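Deviations from the work plan: none for this task. Representative record:
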Amino acid sequence: MNNNLQIPADSVGLVKPQSIRFEEPLVLACGKVLAEYDLVYETYGTLNAKADNAVLVCHALSADHHAAGYHSESDKKPGWWDICIGPGKAVDTDRFFVVSSSNIGHCSGSTGPRSINPDTGKAYGPDFPMVTVPDWVKCQKRLAEKLGIIQWAAVAGGSLGAMQAMQWAIDFPESIRHALIIASAPKLSAQNIAFNAVARQAIMSDPDFHGGRYYDFDVVPASGLKIARMLGHITYLSDDSMGDKFGRELKGEQLNYDYRVEFEVESYLRYQGEAFVNHFDANTYLLMTKALDYFDPASQEGGNLSAAFKKTSAKYFLASFTTDWRFSPERSREIVKALTRAKKDVSYLEFESNHGHDAFLAPISSYLDAFAAYMRHIKVSGE
Amino acid sequence: MSELRADLQKICEWIEPNTRVLDLGCGDGSLLAWLKENRGVSGYGVDIDDANVRACIENDVNIIQADLDAGLTDFDEGSFDYVVMSQALQALQFPDRTIAEMTRVGRQSIVTFPNFGLWMHRFHLMLKGRMPVSKALPAEWYDTKNIHLCTIKDFERFCQQRSIDIARRDIVDYAHKESVLMKTWPNLFGELALYQIRAK
């Protein structure tokens, strides 16, 4: 059988992750210091002579630096935002130079809990410091400097990725011209934090968790991580999309009246959970959920989000999706309200979709068209 | 102003340079685009329609997709120099509430609407006994978006009742020309009414 896939013409094609070591110590929001760290990243397109066509793409909770294209011809799926990045796509790689890095704390190459702690010679595990959205933005700033990028044409992301775009606009106002904030929120609600808390409890109460030192025991807290992912996954979908996809379809022919998988939706969630456990690290999951919980740029201004945006100079594009209940349209409108109050240039669009929170990853033509239309107005030199 | 729709040209004449404008039911954003380009105006368009908001993005105009009938709660009192609503009043579910919101958010507001008191409409109803269908109001009664039509007299009475100050008025035809007839009997001959209003 021939596994080789035909790489589509609008794909960035085969891509290769790169890595940079940073030896300048990084002081984190939690007060701890990372003496040195690696960042893994990918780039698509070409940086122009004035370096004013660079776009930073920020990943959300479970994705990584692999945002577009394929690592090998046998890859079944392209990068996580391939629908938006490529020649002729919204983030048009014929015009833009796209950078996508994995954040520290992650488990896909950038320094994280699975990396070796130079102080002990063993994996960091639970000793990896808490990382926050501002910490990641600081890392991305250093990466930009290494790549010769003084100012991003745009920083874009969905969900937790969008929070990084927001933080960029606030922390480095001179270094970003446009912020694209998709399916996001200015901070987590009590309900959002509650879901994260349950996910963490599932992981930490797994007997194989060993206080986060499971690497030493050559095990992973698989059932805990699986439950965490299943729970998370429910919040990414909408009632409608689950209904459309599974309804009350049975896995078998008839009801069994036992506790084995009976409904299709149960089977799907288990599959999602298991697939996740195979490639994701439990300590990273804990860290990512905490980074989400801590995100609150308004807190530095006594809860006034508009004041946080006051000194920013980026233009903003916000989008939300009707059935997203994790970060509902109302949450995006909180950001819009703060931005209009701060007299910033902002456009806000609300898209009809039954995909729930995951809609920002879905090929919804109205969304992709508007995204592309916005990007076309971003000026780059040499055009 | 060649490329700008005639009624929007009139509105532009009323807007001072370098001010902040909120354009309700902004369509493709051409008013704001023109004002930004020629008058140094900044601001936002608000529209609910998917095609319109997309057109605003294409035209590089700040657009906020929202339902006007849900109010302008996301905007603070007096936060714009002008709140504009051009020929959208008659399509609103709650025009009275929206006007109240406009006068809250804008230091000045500009409202335009087709005058239902126009003699043609009156004759249409009187002679044919059917709901008026005209160039400005082309839809049939069952599929019209214009659910709250009013006459010039109705609007002015409404302003009086709600303590809204009429700062300026212009009654024109659809080509935006004025005439002696319109000046003398505005409610009978005026096709389009433009008002600049503010809270008393």
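Residues 18-187+296-376 of chain A form a domain with the Rossmann fold fold (CATH 3.40.50.1820).
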